TrEMBL record, chain A:
Official protein name in the record: G-patch domain-containing protein
InterPro entries: G_patch_dom (IPR000467), GPANK1 (IPR039146)
Pfam hit, one: G-patch
Stretches that traverse the bilayer: none
UniProt GO MF annotations: nucleic acid binding
Chain positions covered by the region annotation Disordered: 62-83, 181-211
Automatic annotation (TrEMBL), chain B:
Catalytic activity: ATP + H2O = ADP + phosphate + H(+)
Compositional bias per record (Basic and acidic residues), positions renumbered to this chain: 1-11, 44-53
Any Gene Ontology CC annotation: post-mRNA release spliceosomal complex
Protein known as: RNA helicase
Gene name as annotated: PRP43
Enzyme class name: hydrolase
């Protein structure tokens, strides 16, 4: 409401005058040269990534850190597996996670089930995502899908699907709080007051909670057809 | 789908027509026009020219040195020339001096009969002065006039162009060049872009796309199109070079400037074309236009065959039209390998443009900038407005001479800040013997004459030997890229700006105060280094700069309602909106919303094809909602009134409410008030304004009645232009007599035909309303004049703040809604709730009424 008049009562309005003498605003020069200000500092690449360090400790026998800084430990299909000879000894590789299926039990069928239930294998499985929230009956969606856009594909529009997937969110700001200030108001809610209740109050509160739960239950699971059948609604 | 060949054919026919007319003009004097003369490549490149170029370059160097040491006056003059490129406001100022100097009357084609000597055979002069209309023998005879004749197309060099520019005759019009031309030529050759003319030409010749980066003041807007003209020679092929601008004013003023630089009359060789204003002719070879205009031309000429080169200027602004145009040009370029495209940007994020245009080569021209020292606050500021005011005063008290630029977000904030700074500055002068400080506001809706004031020089010291004066400009982000003010040494940047955001889920477009981007902050800082090393004070911490600011501002295409754009694209024959290669494709939901809105408006059918109404609506430079309302208004017998209303809704706010006289303004507004709502009130104002009493002295009348003369005048203008389109589209202009009892009802019903998607219903007995289908709780904006109690309201605007307001409302009846927009108000599509119940009640009521009617019969 930009064109509204100032609603603060006159007495409480900030007195504006002699501001300069009251408090000066401190400034600090930029830490880096202004010409470089735009260029983002390259992310510090440690000489050895945590993942490699971990492997170095675990596989003492010499997995040299060949300068690959892959931090993802859950993609084990690169060189950071036990050495090649070990693999050959152990038998077939799993197609999905590229790890050897250990045939220790003898029977291959049990071995594969054991392997399939291993975390390493499951992590490598392709995940299905929950379907998009978009209403399938929408006219606009019909148009877009007729040109090959799939709402569940998790892709945007554009020649290569590089577009943003969700609209940009609007954040309303109607105060003059400066950039980077953490408002205190947001911190307050978590501090719930502790109070002592007697038996009666507890009973009352319990009833209230139950009623609330029931209302929620009804709201979420209500079915018009069923209610009509039951003679309600 | 079947439209495409149709429109193409249409375009072709049109083109043939123009060519024919040119031929017919030629045939008066000589049937055998030898155009080949132009095309012959110059085989021998004289070495002397190279030498000349070197000599001139070295002399340029000394020239520049002399410039720097010379007095202020001269420098100012030169800077003015340079800045004009991007400075629409300065243009007006500029137009004065050269005219006063006096154009050489010889340069005026209309006075050519007085100076017969240079023109040998006057009889053959047929008005086509750019060469191709002339008999070949004359071309050979007057070699100076055709100094371009030996130019090989796409093989020329800067030295060759220089020779042609040096005259003595105008290479394009053949007229002798004026002394004013040579004056300007001298300053032009000092522009930064001129140093890289050869480099530019080489890259331009070798590639279809070229990305050109030059800061404001480098002269790119005025010079690059001329560089292109000399090399591309559009006149040989009967084509044009187009240069697009995001703003109308810029297109106009730059065209005027370039016409002066080329020593031709505006509208002849150099012209401009903005919405409703076409200042071009058959002779035109360079056309400045708004990007929206070029888009409109593409609708009828899908391959843009009229153009040999298209220059997109100010591409960094990423307006909706620029983005759409870029996507379109990428497709057109594949179909037309001969078309050259130059993208010009003022900021350094050019890599994105490069990769978008298939890794196009990049040429960067350093601007005339000085280093800027950047300061941050050690702690976040609690109140950025107060902090910014104090920073300004601090600078005034302690920093050496130099003007200040403060960025704030909106009109009210800026006016308020100006007032406070003035008060404080007065106190400082009294108490601390500070120098005088003049404060100027700057924002888009400010009248041009007041915007002009920011170019006034800073005030002098109040007494001899006193501290120097200084000016402070408090501006929106208008001063960030689009406008250049010299003399700014200090920039205060609180880190916020007002940005448009569109939420497709509730279909609300709103202007919100949001943190700026890093690129934006950088641009703001750069404003301080235009004339000498400067300082930029950022009112946030360095950590906040790194962590809280996004890299670049979101382009408009991601922040707008796209229904207008989708309609344009459909009209352009682009159906595959999914794979249309925009630089930043919008979110699917936004596009879906746009498609649905157009479907409800009956501009697209259920399969997404353009309907007849859609085609008609795209002819209007309006939002589809307004266009549909206007087109369907004859059905309600009020197209004259709806036309006025459409014009009023497309201009800034008509009512003025100055802080000093709010009560009086409200009283005056109530004079026009119509109980049924604000739309009708606006219409009353317009009718009163057009009445004899007001027209006697419009300025006084507007001042007395607290309405904006500027808004009403521009509404008048828009109305006239829309009327012209309606006439060509054969839409009837009808009215019922004012005494008719349905006069206002008709208008209200016509409003529903366009705005049926912007309706709110009263919630119970409370003051709140809920928007239909989107279910947003809203309340009436306090500015409304609405007096009648009504359950249903149609609104023009949804204002998003802590409270959601609807502004400019009019009462409507639910029967109308279901009658006029039956698909949208199909009761089965509504979820359970009060709106559905109310609609159901209405249906029952109507049914009962009909039943009783039937019974009586």
């Amino acid at each position: 409401m930009s064109d509204e008049e100032d609603s603060t009562p006159r007495g409480q309005q900030r007195i504006f005058g002699a501001g300069i003498t009251r408090k000066t605003i401190q400034f600090v020069p930029a830490a880096i040269a202004p010409t470089q200000a735009t260029q983002l500092a390259p992310p510090n690449v440690p000489s050895i990534s945590p993942g490699d360090r971990y492997l170095n400790i675990v596989l003492k026998d010499g997995m040299p850190t060949e300068g690959h800084h892959s931090t993802s430990t859950e993609v084990p299909n690169h060189e950071k597996r036990p050495s090649q000879q070990q693999l050959e000894l152990r038998g077939a590789l799993c197609e999905i996670c590229n790890l050897p299926i250990e045939a220790s039990e003898g029977k291959t069928s049990t071995a594969s089930t054991i392997h399939e239930s291993s975390i390493a294998h499951m992590v490598c499985l392709t995940h299905s995502h929950p379907p998009s929230h978009l209403d399938r009956s929408r006219q606009g969606l019909k148009y877009l899908s007729s040109y090959g856009w799939d709402p569940d594909s998790r892709e945007g529009l554009g020649a290569t699907g590089e577009g943003i997937r969700a609209p940009i969110k609007a954040k309303v700001k109607n105060n003059t709080v400066g950039l980077g200030v953490k408002l205190k108001g947001t911190k307050k809610p978590p501090e719930a007051k502790l109070e002592r209740l007697d038996a009666k109050q507890i009973r009352k509160k319990d009833m209230e909670d139950r009623r609330k739960r029931e209302r929620l239950q009804e709201m979420l699971y209500r079915n018009d057809d069923v209610e009509k059948y039951l003679g309600g609604g | 789908m079947d439209r495409r060949p149709d429109t193409q054919d249409h375009g072709r026919v049109k083109r043939r027509k123009t060519i024919d007319s040119r031929y017919s003009a030629d045939s008066d004097d000589d049937g055998g026009v030898k155009l080949g003369n132009f095309g012959q490549p110059a085989e021998v490149k004289p070495k002397k020219e190279d030498l000349d170029a070197k000599l001139s370059q070295s002399s340029k160097g000394t020239d520049q040195l002399a410039e720097e040491t010379s007095k202020k006056k001269r420098k100012k003059e030169e800077d003015e020339d340079a800045d004009l490129a991007s400075n629409p406001y300065l243009a007006q100022q500029y137009e004065g001096p050269p005219k006063k100097k006096g154009l050489d009357p010889r340069a005026n084609p209309y006075l050519a009969h007085r100076y017969e000597e240079p023109v040998e055979d006057e009889g053959s002069y047929n008005g086509y002065s750019n060469g191709y209309g002339r008999p070949a023998n004359r071309m050979d005879g007057v070699s100076n006039a055709s100094s371009l004749a030996r130019f090989p197309r796409h093989k020329s060099t800067a030295a060759m162009a220089k020779k042609a520019e040096d005259g003595p005759n105008n290479p394009f019009s053949g007229q002798p060049l004026s002394s004013q031309y040579f004056n300007i030529l001298k300053t032009r050759r000092n522009l930064p872009v001129h140093q890289q003319r050869d480099e530019f030409l080489r890259m331009y010749q070798n590639s279809q796309f070229l990305v050109f980066v030059g800061e404001t003041g480098s002269g790119k807007t005025t010079q690059i199109p001329q560089f292109v003209l000399f090399d591309d020679q559009p006149q040989i092929q009967r084509k044009l070079v187009a240069c697009t601008q995001p703003r109308r004013v810029a297109a106009m003023s730059v065209a005027q400037r370039v016409a002066n630089e080329m020593d031709v009359t505006l509208g002849d060789e150099v012209g401009y074309n903005i919405r409703f204003e076409d200042v071009t002719s058959q002779k035109t070879i360079l056309k400045y236009m708004t990007d929206g205009m070029l888009l409109r031309e593409a609708m009828n000429d899908n391959n843009l065959n009229r153009y040999s080169t298209i220059i997109l200027d100010e591409a960094h602004e990423r307006t909706l039209a620029t983005d759409t145009l870029m996507g379109l040009l990428k497709e057109v370029a594949q179909r037309r390998p001969d078309l050259k495209i130059v993208i010009m940007s003022a900021t350094l994020d050019a890599q994105k443009f490069q990769s978008y245009f298939n890794d196009a080569p990049l040429l960067a021209v350093p601007g005339r900038t000085h280093p800027v020292e950047i300061f941050y606050t050690p702690e976040p500021e609690r109140d950025y407005v107060e902090a910014s005011l104090r920073t300004v005063l601090q600078i005034h008290a302690s920093e050496p001479e130099g003007d200040i630029l403060l960025f704030l977000t909106g009109e009210e904030e800026i006016e308020d800040a100006c007032r406070k700074i003035r008060l404080e500055a007065d106190e400082m002068i009294r108490e601390a013997d500070a120098g005088p400080l003049t404060v100027y506001p700057l924002y888009g809706t400010l009248p041009p004459n007041q915007q002009q004031k920011i170019f006034d020089p800073a005030p002098p010291a109040s007494k001899k030997g006193g501290r120097p004066g200084r000016k402070c400009i408090v501006s929106t982000n208008i001063a960030e890229t689009s406008l250049t003010i010299d003399g700014i040494v200090y920039v205060v940047d609180p880190g916020f700006s007002k940005q448009k955001i569109y939420n497709p889920r509730i279909r609300v477009e709103s202007l919100l105060v949001s943190p700026i981007s890093k690129a934006s902050a950088q641009q703001r800082a750069g404003r301080a280094g235009r004339t000498r090393p400067g300082k930029c004070f950022r009112l946030y911490t360095e950590g906040a700069f790194k962590k809280e600011l996004i890299e670049t501002t979101y382009p408009e295409v991601l922040r707008s309602n796209l229904s207008s754009t989708v309609l344009d694209l459909k009209k352009l024959g682009i159906d595959d909106l999914v794979h249309f290669d925009l630089m930043d494709p919008p979110a699917p939901e936004t596009l879906m919303r746009a498609l649905e809105e157009l479907n409800y408006l009956a501009c697209l059918d259920d399969d997404g094809n353009l309907t007849a109404l859609g085609k008609l609506a795209s002819e209007f430079p309006l939002d589809p909602t307004l266009a549909v309302m206007l087109i369907s208004s004859p059905e309600f017998y009020c197209s004259n009134e709806v036309l006025s209303l459409t014009a009023l809704l497309s201009v800034p706010q008509v009512f003025v409410r100055p802080a000093s006289a709010r009560k009086r303004a409200d009283e005056m507004k109530s004079l026009f008030a119509h109980p049924d709502g604000d739309h009708l009130t606006m219409l009353n104002v317009y009718h009163a304004f057009k009445g004899p009493e007001a027209q006697a002295n419009p300025k006084q009348w507007c001042h007395d009645h607290f309405v904006s003369l500027r808004a009403l005048q521009s509404a008048d203008n828009v109305r006239m232009q829309l009327k012209r389109i309606m006439e060509t589209q054969e839409i009837e202009l009808v009215s019922v007599p004012f005494e008719d009892k349905n006069y206002y009802t008709n208008i209200r019903r016509a409003l529903v035909a366009g705005f049926f998607m912007q309706v709110a219903m009263k919630e119970g007995n409370s003051k709140t309303y809920v928007t239909v289908k989107d279910n947003q709780n809203v309340i009436l904006h306090p500015s409304t004049v609405l007096q009648t109690e009504s359950d249903w309201l149609l609104y023009n605007e949804f204002v998003l703040t802590t409270k959601n307001y609807i502004r400019t409302v009019t009462t409507v009846k639910p029967e109308w809604l279901m009658d006029i927009a039956p698909t949208y108000y199909d009761i089965t599509t509504f979820g359970k709730g009060p709106v559905k119940n109310a609609l159901q009640r209405t249906i029952d009521k109507v049914r009962r009424k009909e039943a009783t009617k039937g019974g009586r019969r």
